[in-house]
Amino acid sequence: MNSDTTIAILGGTGPQGQGLAIRFAIAGISVALGSREGDRAAAIAEELNRKLEGRSAVPVRGYDNLAAIDAAERFVLLAVPYSGHDATLGVVKGHLAGKVLVDLVVPLAAGNPRAVAMPKEGSATEAAQALLGREVKVVGALHNVSAHTLNALEENINCDILACGDDVEATDAVVELIKRLGVESYNCGPAVHARCIEALTPLLIRLNMSKKVPFSHAGIRIWRPGRPGV
């Protein structure tokens, strides 16, 4: 992947989108930050570029969602709240031909982030694929990393990233994109597995809100057998 690659992040003005924009820019990947309001995206992009001074030579630029998609070579990340998931895809569907949609959205239950309310398709990833049709390749990924972790630039991302999608080549390409962030990422199979991956998020939220884990913002790692750290 070339250093001049540009990705789009729709919903990029939220905490998760901003954290990903900064992390990808540090990794040498230009970011088209998308929002329903282009002016807001441009203002947030300016703020992020100030944070990136001395850390990255590639910019974050703000656009409305459709212009952000047009600026992306291949990858479009969807980081909107679940309440806006289907509506956003309905608006941008006609601009996604030839792109890979990376769906980050977790269908958390309304008013209860410690539970999921899966759509009839089984997961947000599957719902996106059903809405967009087979002409757009959908990959679910980046569901289980917290916005706090992404924005804590002095810290490494503390988890592995699980990806799934029905197109193997597209999923493998997303895995390689994510590895640019300095993390391990794995192709976990077809989109139906998003039901498991997305459902991990409320479990992590529940643990992080409890006193059973002696720290917050925990992540998940795929680890080999043997003693921890060996």
Automatic annotation (TrEMBL):
Organism domain of life: Bacteria
Q: Which Pfam families match?
A: F420_oxidored
Can you supply one Gene Ontology CC term for this chain's record? plasma membrane
Which residue ranges does the record assign to the Pyrroline-5-carboxylate reductase catalytic N-terminal domain?
Answer: 6-106
Q: Where does the record locate the signal sequence feature? A: none
InterPro entries according to UniProt:
NAD(P)-bd_dom_sf, NpdG, P5C_Rdtase_cat_N, STEAP_metalloreductase
Query: What is an example of a GO molecular function annotated in this UniProt entry?
Result: NADP binding
Gene3D superfamilies in UniProt = NAD(P)-binding Rossmann-like Domain
Keywords, comma-separated and alphabetical: Oxidoreductase
- Name the GO terms of the biological process aspect: copper ion import; NADPH regeneration
PANTHER family per the UniProt record, alphabetical: DUDULIN-RELATED, F420-DEPENDENT NADP REDUCTASE
Q: What is this protein called?
A: NADPH-dependent F420 reductase
- Species for this entry: Bradyrhizobium centrolobii
